[in-house]
Design goal:
Structural class: mainly beta
Distance between the termini: 161 Å
Helix content: under 10%
Largest sheet: 5 strands, mixed
Number of strands: 155
Radius of gyration: 59 Å
Shape: flat
Number of helices: 4
């Protein structure tokens, strides 16, 4: 033990002396030194710490260690801390590096216990020291102990302190100096401090120009300042409007004035900040002021001159005149000369910021004006002796007017201008006005001729003969008249009461009485006479009224003035109680005293010379003042919290309360009422004041107290700022596991491709409104449902954008998706690893490649591809995956699907034995007989389940082959159908055939009927080519109409050529090839019958489905589709006892329809639903009265309307009809309806594919059927229907998700609705038609709404479809369409087949294809806006028609629904009466109807004029004339248009201008006189006037030939006059001067006159022919012998005529129409030679050389008399 201790001591000593290398010694490296700051030994007292680090030469790390950590510890940076008394060795070791070996050093540490005696440490200057930067101050500290004293500065940037305690001041600032004395063995350590203040040095800041600077505006002067410090020098101007100074001290002088310029140098570390100033004076610039006319102005009194002055500055220029009596000058320098004289005009421009003020002058001379002296009568004046006349001369000046007579013995004149006739003769009277200050003198004269007066006495009478009574300022007219022609003069006996003017007008001036006297001068016959009447005048009544009628409340001691307005005399104000409210008697100002109470303020007007006495008053209330204040009473949510709800407590929204109270002097406490400035942000209880916070924002809460008997009303308010709450999200997966770092750290969800996991969100607020996936290729998320798509990872995030109560929030978790095994559809799964047989050349589909899960390409292989192989085709091609048998033998075929990123690999092996092939064969290979329209079957037998390619036919248009292998005959004839089976092998093609013949016979004719009581009978003739007719019947039309009997049945008797049944029927192939059906009876007069053909002959009514109700219409790919429906009340098929249909129609324009299939594979039905969804047509549900069970349950779809697929034979919902199916949110939604036992349902189903259906809700609203649902503005809308009792409903519901429904309006404006239509169109909801309060209450109203709540009826004053229910609507090509329907309930109500469309919902157009108008003559046809129009005419039954028909092509016509107005208001339909022999023309872009006849008598002639911009709405004015630019306007009776018919109207444009006239030529008036020219005349084109040049005629034609580069001519052909003579032709040549128009007519011996027979009731029209010239064409008519013509002529000038056809195919006719339309000539209707009225239509494409009849029905119509 002793030996060990000795060795240790020796070693330690060695180390202390020399140190040692540490670690392995590398001889290649150098030794280094390692030294402590204090090599020791070091003594410390317990509790002390010292810094004693070691440093070496190398870069190795240094570590420290203590030999006794109980005595002392050392940190890794060399800080030694003494812990207890003792000794320790502190070692430092530096590690070796690339240059040096490691080294270790140590020092010895002695730790002693410190002394415990407290000592005092005292500074030489004990408390504080102050100095200046750069000072050095000694201030040592001494204590009693021997421990070392150390010093420290708290801010060494301010001052440092050395080991002796001397401080050096470095910068301005303060620092705390601390002295510490170490402990020794006796004395404990101690410390002390003092405060040091270091002041910066003071410096001097000096300007280059030190005291003041003077300059002129725009000068720039440099004057920089410098100091001793380094701080930045800044500059400032005390008035930057005067001068600015830049960072260099340069000043810019801006305006006149003074400014103090200050320079400031910033402090630096040693020098304090300093500043200095100097004064700057900036003088303004001198400017020049110049006049526009610089020197002088001369003018005349009242002259005005503009002579402004301008200077360089912007100061205001002012003007003055040295003599305002001579001339004044305005603020713009404008001179007004007032009197004669001279004046000096001075202009002064004010100083502005840069320019000094300046003045200038000029001299002005003003001369008097020359005036005009005007005599009241300039003469000569004729007077009779004794008469007098006041003929006053008036001048412009104020000079005295004097008068003189050239002969006072003849006529004297007074100084007032009154001339008195003295004796017969002539005298000259001169009037002279003297000069005044403004005008020069002037004179004028006139002649007076005096004659002897008559002696007959006369009576002078007043309009009011006896007396007049009135009020001051009243005016009355009371002229007097006598028998003579002398002038009447008037005078008043008291002008102060009333004056009278020269016309007998009385002006009442003051209260009193006066006598008015009238005198009539003598004339050649009558002597002078006088008369008088009395006038009584009373005072006026005042109209005063107070502005405020009271009561008025005034605070005590306050004042108020209630203005009084009106007319009247002086008012004095008084108070009923001055102790409560006093009033100023003059001003009316009311002052409240110190008492509360009520008083009456009265305004009194005493009677004066003008006004009667009167008084007015109002009530005054004097009240105490009180003030509304607020205080906090309770807090439910403090206003400083950013929240609006306390949702954690389940109370949303939150409330807040701030009580209001009244401060007043008497403890007054009335009821306080609270209101909110914005109830959408916060509402407030009006009584309690409790605020309900609704959303973020600022709101003002106001409290009010009403006035009472002592206190005035008071109000107060406070503002409340509301903020949202913070939302917090955390996730939980489907198993309840948390997916949030708050719960399990690293949240990850793991699953497999196609897994669907629902994530639940735990939220402190609303649910997330946005879910996102960082990698949608791996997984998608929607509403918390995560769908895993492919292997990989993704981050799933949920967020909420916040709402009214909550701020936005978000959170996320990680998702890992694993791959899964793939599958594929296998047709022979049992063959995997086994063997099977395959016939030679056959194929077998082993798999469906389209169903494989993998995206990888399928790999096929065969051990012997010469025997069996899978064709190498494009992936997903039709034959991919099909096994082919090539030759007899065996092979192993392998199919492999490689793995991809989602699926594992898949493999199958098939053993194949190829056997011999069997050829295909039809079941019946002979001739198959088929009936047109009736499907049949002929199955094809093949060797396996695969059908061969589509069979071929030798003749097209006879058979169509359906998808299920059945055949549909579509035309008659024979065709051969061949099925071909081809198999491709490696050695060639294997082919086999099978065929059969088909012979199709028979057509089907549909016969439709409408009763027309005007016709005696109707004959319908079918074409001779028909080979069979299946006829159908309607319900009997006559039974109910006569006997009101419910027994309505169809007739089913044997076929005859004439029968009184409603319609006839017969079976197929039982009718002769030619058939005439006729019907009629004595009761109902007649049923009009129409026949249309199915099949190759065309469709019924030129492509239109039968009338029906409850059809379903929809749009698919821009085309119309109509499916099914019921035609009860219409056509019924004996082979189909039900009225329901299952036919499918298609249209591209809504008007022309094509039958796709007459019998679709689904059952007949109505009240079904058809929708377009996922590019398919879907048929769902429906009703058939013969089958109410389950046959309508299957769901059918079709991509083309021809080929139909049964998608689901037993859907989840029960069978139903009267339901709705609507597309919404990428799904189909089925809602309500009735089931097979007619129970109303109340369930909602949805489907994303149309096949599989999910029950979404039950009982969301009352059960119903025949309702309507549509998709609008992102929501489903349901309206009306019938409830379980059959009552109609009016409620409106909406849903944003199809499940949760809200009642929007239970009482809409349109009332109850069922069997109506609801559709979205033009961004609005539309409700159309249906039934209302009962099943018979059918309507045709149209309503629209932009929000589903408020509704507007759109068709109140517009043409609309007829009343209907159960119809179809759809929107195609920007139009809303309505199709078919039912116009009532019961056996005899009619189904409808019409088609209507609208572009605005208000005005509807009938789009139904119609044959054409009924036969008629003397109608009018014209072209207007791209259509042909037929208007009016006389029908075959003698009816004058006012029908309007239009056609786009001249072939298919439809009647226009018209509405007329005689007053322009359209409030009642006053359409023009039916007429013939009228005129229709196009003028000013309108259709015009003018004149005509409405009966057989001339008394029935018409002169009304109607116009229409669209052919539908007609407006009338009467009587009429045409005014250029104004149209047809009322005219004076002597100029109005006469009542005429059989006339002609030609619009004529002059060659030299755009002026247009309407020329009416000929016709017959209401006295049966043939007329000549009757044209729009007058110099201004304002009146109708007869003109005589053209010989009188009617039944003629007038045609305008407007030839290019030539004068237009009007050609008038034919006609007849009163004697019945038929003109050949007459030509009117029109020149530019309308008064120069004249007529030329060839001689009767002209060869052309013989060729073109004279005629009337013919047609002539102009048509530009192939030469480009306008050519006249003349057709038909009646000659003088009464013979009708069927020829056609043409002429280029109206003089020379050439025959085109002498016997046109349209036959002899008159009273027809010939027009030009679509570059064709057309002949329409009229009357045949035998008197038959026609409605045939013919057209020519080659200028009349050949004609084709235009027909749209394969049936002819004829009437029997």
């Amino acid at each position: 033990m002793m030996l060990t201790k000795l060795l240790t001591t020796v070693t330690l000593c060695a180390l202390v002396l020399t140190g040692c290398d540490s670690g392995p010694i590398d001889e290649e490296k150098s030794s280094q030194t390692l030294a402590f700051n204090d090599a020791g030994p070091v003594s410390m007292f317990v509790g002390e710490s010292i810094e004693n680090p070691a440093t070496g030469q190398g870069t190795g790390s240094i570590t420290y260690a203590s030999s006794d950590t109980a005595v002392a510890t050392v940190s890794n940076v060399g800080t030694v801390s003494a812990l207890s008394a003792g000794q320790a060795i502190i070692t430092a070791s530096i590690a070796a590096d690339d240059t040096f070996n490691g080294r270790t050093e140590l020092f010895i540490l002695y730790v002693s216990a410190p002394g415990t005696t407290s000592q005092t440490l005292t500074f030489a200057t004990p408390t504080s020291v102050t100095g200046t930067v750069d000072d050095v101050i000694a201030n040592a500290a001494t204590g009693q102990g021997t421990g070392a004293v150390t010093y420290a500065s708290s801010d060494t940037a301010v001052a440092t302190v050395d080991t002796a305690g001397s401080i050096t001041l470095l910068t301005g600032g303060t620092s705390t100096i601390t002295a510490s004395i170490a402990a020794d063995t006796q004395w404990a350590a101690q410390s002390n401090t003092y405060e040091l203040t270091s002041n910066k040095k003071v410096q001097t800041l000096t300007f280059a120009t030190p005291t003041s600077v003077t300059g002129t505006v725009d000068d720039v002067i440099a004057n920089a300042a410098t100091g001793q410090g380094t701080g930045a020098v800044t500059y400032a101007s005390s008035d930057t409007a005067v001068a600015t100074v830049d960072t260099a001290g340069s000043i810019t002088l801006l305006t006149g004035g003074t400014s103090t310029i200050t320079a400031s140098i910033a402090a630096d570390t040693q020098w304090a900040a300093q500043s200095n100033t100097y004064e700057l004076t900036s003088n303004k610039k001198v400017q020049t002021l110049t006049f526009a006319t610089p020197t002088s102005l001369t003018g005349t009194i009242d002259d005005i001159f503009a002579n402004p002055a301008t200077g360089q500055g912007s100061g205001t220029v002012t003007y003055s005149s040295s003599n305002d009596a001579v001339a004044t000058v305005d603020i713009y320098g404008g001179i007004l000369m007032l009197s004669a004289g001279n004046a000096t005009i001075t202009a002064t421009i004010a100083a502005d910021t840069q320019w000094a003020a300046q003045s200038n002058t000029y001299e002005l001379t003003s001369n008097k004006k020359v005036q005009t002296l005007a005599l009241a009568d300039t003469g000569p004046i004729a007077l009779f002796v004794g008469n007098s006349l006041n003929n006053v001369a008036l001048g412009e000046g104020t000079g005295t007017v004097s008068y003189a007579s050239s002969d006072d013995n003849i006529a004297s004149v007074s100084n007032t201008g009154k001339v008195t006739a003295v004796s017969a003769g002539q005298a000259t009277i001169t009037a002279t006005i003297a000069t005044d200050t403004i005008f020069l003198p002037q004179s004028d004269t006139y002649i007076v001729n005096v004659s002897a007066a008559g002696t007959t006495s006369q009576t002078l009478s007043f309009a009011t003969p006896t007396s007049l009574t009135g009020t001051i300022d009243d005016i009355f007219a009371n002229p007097a008249t006598g028998q003579g022609s002398g002038t009447v003069t008037y005078s008043s006996s008291n002008d102060a009461v009333a004056t009278v003017d020269i016309y007998g007008g009385i002006l009442m001036l003051s209260a009193g009485n006066a006598t008015i006297t009238a005198t009539i001068a003598a004339d050649a016959v009558y002597a002078l006479a006088t008369n008088s009447f009395d006038v009584s005048v009373t005072k006026k009544v005042a109209t005063y009224a107070f502005n405020d009628g009271g009561p008025v409340s005034i605070l005590l001691t306050n004042s108020y003035t209630n203005a009084i307005t009106g007319t009247g005399g002086t008012i004095t104000f008084t108070s009923s109680d001055p102790s409560i409210a006093s009033v100023d008697p003059v001003t009316g100002q009311v002052t409240a005293t110190t008492l509360t109470g009520d008083a009456v303020i009265t305004a009194t007007m005493v009677e004066d010379s003008q006004w009667q006495a009167a008084s007015w008053n109002y009530d005054v209330h004097t009240r105490y003042f009180e003030e509304m204040l607020f205080e906090y009473e309770t807090w439910e949510v403090p206003p400083s919290v950013n929240a609006t709800i306390g949702c954690a407590a389940g109370a949303c929204p939150a409330t807040y309360f701030k009580r209001a109270f009244l401060r007043n002097e008497g403890g007054h406490s009335p009821q306080i009422t609270y209101v909110s400035s914005d109830t959408t942000i916060a509402s407030v209880d009006s009584v309690s004041g409790v605020v309900t916070m609704l959303k973020e924002g600022l709101v003002t809460i106001t409290a009010s107290a009403l006035e009472d008997s002592e206190y005035i009303a008071a109000t107060g308010s406070y503002q409340l700022t509301l903020t949202k709450s913070m939302m917090i999200y955390s996730f939980i997966d489907s198993l309840g596991n948390p997916l949030d770092p708050l719960f399990d750290g690293n949240a990850t969800l793991e699953g497999t491709v196609d897994d669907v996991v629902t994530i639940t969100v735990m939220s402190e607020g609303g649910a997330p409104d946005l879910w996102t996936s960082s990698n949608t290729a791996v997984a998608t998320v929607s509403n918390g449902t995560v769908t895993m798509l492919t292997g990989g990872t993704a981050t799933i995030s949920a967020s909420n954008a916040g709402d009214t109560y909550w701020k936005a929030a978000s959170n996320s978790f990680e998702l890992t998706v694993n791959k899964f095994d793939q599958t594929i559809t296998e047709y022979r799964p049992e063959a995997d690893g086994n063997s099977f047989n395959l016939m030679l050349s056959d194929g077998l589909q082993l798999i469906d490649p389209a169903t494989k899960d993998s995206s990888a390409t399928i790999v096929y292989s065969s051990t012997d591809s010469s025997v069996a192989y899978i064709a190498d085709v494009t992936p997903n091609a039709p034959e991919e995956g099909r096994l082919f048998a090539a030759k007899l033998g065996n092979a192993l075929v392998t199919i492999t699907i490689p793995a991809d990123d989602r699926f594992n690999a898949w493999t199958r092996n098939y053993g194949v034995s190829v056997i011999a092939q069997v050829a295909p064969a039809y079941t019946n290979t002979g001739t198959v007989y088929a009936i047109l329209g009736t499907d049949f079957e002929n199955p094809l037998l093949v060797s396996d389940a695969n059908l061969p390619s589509t069979p071929t036919m030798t003749t097209a248009g006879i058979i169509t082959i359906n998808a299920d292998g059945t055949f549909t005959p579509i035309g008659t004839g024979v065709t051969t159908i061949t099925a071909t089976l081809e198999k491709e092998t490696r050695t060639g093609t294997y082919t086999a055939y099978s065929s059969f013949d088909v012979n199709v016979v028979g057509h089907t004719a549909y016969i439709a009927a409408q009763r027309d009581p005007r016709l005696a009978s109707t004959t319908v003739t079918t074409p001779a080519s028909i080979d069979g007719v299946s006829a159908y019947f309607t319900q009997e039309q006559g039974c109910d109409a006569i006997a009101n009997s419910p027994a309505c049945s169809g007739h089913s008797g044997p076929l005859t050529t004439s029968d009184s049944a409603d319609l006839l029927y017969a079976g197929i192939n039982t009718l002769p090839s030619y058939l005439t059906l006729k019907h009629g009876d004595y009761r109902t007069r007649e049923t009009e019958i129409a026949i249309g053909y199915m099949g190759t002959s065309g469709s019924l009514a030129s492509g239109i489905f039968t009338a029906r109700h409850s059809p379903q219409v929809t749009e698919l790919n821009g085309e119309f589709y109509l499916i099914g429906g019921e035609n009860i009340g219409g056509l019924k098929d004996f082979n189909n006892p039900s009225y329901a249909r299952n036919d499918v129609w298609k249209s591209t324009d809504g008007t022309h329809w094509t039958l796709l299939t007459a019998n679709a594979p689904f059952t007949t039905r109505y009240q079904h639903q058809v929708v377009a969804f996922q590019n398919k047509l879907w048929v769902i549900g429906g009703w058939n009265e013969l089958d109410t069970a389950n046959n309508h349950l299957p769901i059918w779809s079709s991509v083309d309307g021809i080929n139909w697929v049964n998608e689901n034979a037993s859907p989840a919902f029960s069978s139903r009809a009267g339901h709705t199916v609507t597309e919404f949110d990428s799904k189909l939604w089925l809602i309500n309806g009735m089931n097979e036992v007619e129970d109303a349902q109340n369930d909602i189903w949805s489907s994303s594919d149309g096949v599989n259906w999910t029950l979404e809700a039950t009982n969301p609203f009352p059960a119903r059927y025949e309702h309507q649902v549509t998709n609008f503005n992102g929501a489903l809308w349901l309206i009306g229907g019938s409830d379980i009792n059959g009552d109609m409903l009016s409620d409106i519901w909406s849903s944003a998700d199809g499940v949760n429904w809200t009642l929007v309006n239970d009482q809409p404006a349109f009332g109850p609705k069922s069997n109506h239509e609801l559709i979205q169109f033009d961004n609005r909801l539309w409700v159309l038609g249906g039934v209302a309060n009962s099943w018979n209450d059918v309507q045709n109203d149209v309503w629209s709404s932009s929000d589903g709540y408020s509704w507007t009826q759109e068709n109140r004053f517009q043409p609309t479809f007829s009343k209907r229910s159960d119809f179809g609507t759809l929107v195609v090509n920007g139009k809303l369409w309505a199709i078919g329907g039912f116009n009532g309930q019961g056996c005899c109500a009619n189904v409808l087949g019409d088609i209507w469309s609208t572009t605005d919902g208000a005005r509807w157009v009938d789009e139904t294809p119609v044959l054409r108008f009924s036969p008629r003559s003397n109608h009018q046809v014209t072209e207007f806006k791209g259509k042909l129009w037929t208007i009016g005419g006389l029908t075959a039954s003698g009816i004058y028609s006012n029908e309007v028909w239009s056609s786009l092509d001249g072939i298919d016509w439809r009647q226009v629904a018209t509405k007329g107005s005689a007053d322009g208001l359209l409030t009642n339909n006053n359409m023009f009466v039916g007429r013939s022999e009228h005129q229709v023309l196009v003028h000013d872009d309108k259709l015009w109807v003018i004149g005509g006849r409405n009966g057989d008598s001339a008394l029935n002639n018409l002169n009304d004029v109607w116009s229409s911009v669209d052919g539908a709405v007609w407006i009338r004015t009467s009587p009429e004339k045409y005014v250029t630019g104004s149209g047809w306007v009322p005219s004076a009776l002597n100029n109005q248009l006469g009542k005429i018919r059989n006339h002609q109207i030609v619009p004529y444009v002059y060659a030299s201008s755009a002026a247009k006239e309407l020329v009416i030529l000929g016709g017959t008036d209401d006295v049966s006189d043939a007329l000549g020219e009757y044209r729009l005349g007058g110099t201004a084109g304002e009146i109708w006037e007869p003109a005589l040049p053209m010989p009188r005629r009617e039944g003629h034609q007038a045609t305008l030939l407007n030839r290019s580069g030539q004068t237009p001519i009007i050609v008038v052909t034919g006609g007849k006059n009163n004697t019945g003579f038929s003109f050949i032709k007459t030509t009117r040549i029109a020149y530019d001067d309308p008064t120069g128009w004249n007529w030329s007519e060839p001689s009767l011996g002209d060869a052309n006159d013989i060729a073109v027979n004279g005629r009337t009731e013919h047609q002539a029209t102009a048509f530009v022919n192939s030469t480009g010239n306008p050519t006249l064409y003349l057709s038909g008519g009646i000659d003088s012998a009464g013979t009708s013509s069927g020829n056609l002529w043409e002429s280029n000038d109206g003089l020379t005529w050439t025959p085109v056809l002498l016997a046109a195919p349209w036959g002899a006719r008159s009273e027809h129409q010939m027009v030009v339309f679509n570059n064709r000539l057309w002949v329409i209707g009229g009357k045949a030679a035998d008197g038959t009225v026609l409605n045939d239509i013919w057209a020519s494409d080659n200028y009349g050389r050949s004609w084709q009849e235009q027909v749209s029905f394969n049936v002819t119509f004829a009437s029997e008399p």
